[in-house]
TrEMBL record:
Alphabetic keyword roster: RNA-binding
Entry GO CC: nucleus
Database matches in PANTHER family: PROTEIN CBG26694 (PTHR37984), PROTEIN NYNRIN-LIKE (PTHR37984:SF5)
Alphabetical list of SUPFAM superfamilies matching this protein: Ribonuclease H-like (SSF53098)
GO biological process terms on file: DNA integration
Limits of the Integrase catalytic domain: 1-124
Keyword flag Zinc: no
Protein name in the entry: Integrase catalytic domain-containing protein
Coiled coil: none
Keyword match Mitochondrion: no
Length: 124
């Protein structure tokens, strides 16, 4: 799980960031639009509403050492769900390389998308 910044604001609520969640074994990706300024609580609610409610409780979550994911709120959430939190090591692509590569790809796709003057539309 990781976050992306540097996205042109768009959609309902001027979304300017993305929470990227990768299912390691299925190699599938979920990109959840959000605000860069979101608090740990906002991110936890987004995660709960979009992931836990549709996929169930995850056994292990690997994330970088972002303050949003290392906060007391997230620690308590992991404890309540009996989910193990593993922090990735900096400059160690074997741990979180798939997420970092996906972030690069998403930023490239969005940059090209906006270069052609297209606008983000809500999917609802």
């Amino acid at each position: 799980m990781d976050g992306v910044a540097r996205i042109v604001p768009g959609g309902k609520g001027n979304l300017n960031s993305c929470l990227i969640i990768i299912y390691r074994f299925r190699k599938s990706v979920r990109c959840l639009p959000c605000q860069k300024e979101d608090t740990a609580m906002d991110t936890a609610l987004l995660f709960w509403n979009e992931m836990i409610s549709t996929c169930g409780v995850l056994k292990v979550i690997i994330s970088d050492r972002d303050q949003k994911f290392a906060s007391e709120l997230w620690t308590n959430l992991y404890d309540m769900l009996s989910t193990k939190l593993a922090f990735s090591t900096a400059y160690h692509p074997q741990t979180d390389g798939l997420a970092e590569r996906m972030i690069q790809t998403m930023e490239d796709i969005l940059r090209r998308f906006y270069a052609y003057g297209m606008e983000y539309k809500d999917h609802e």
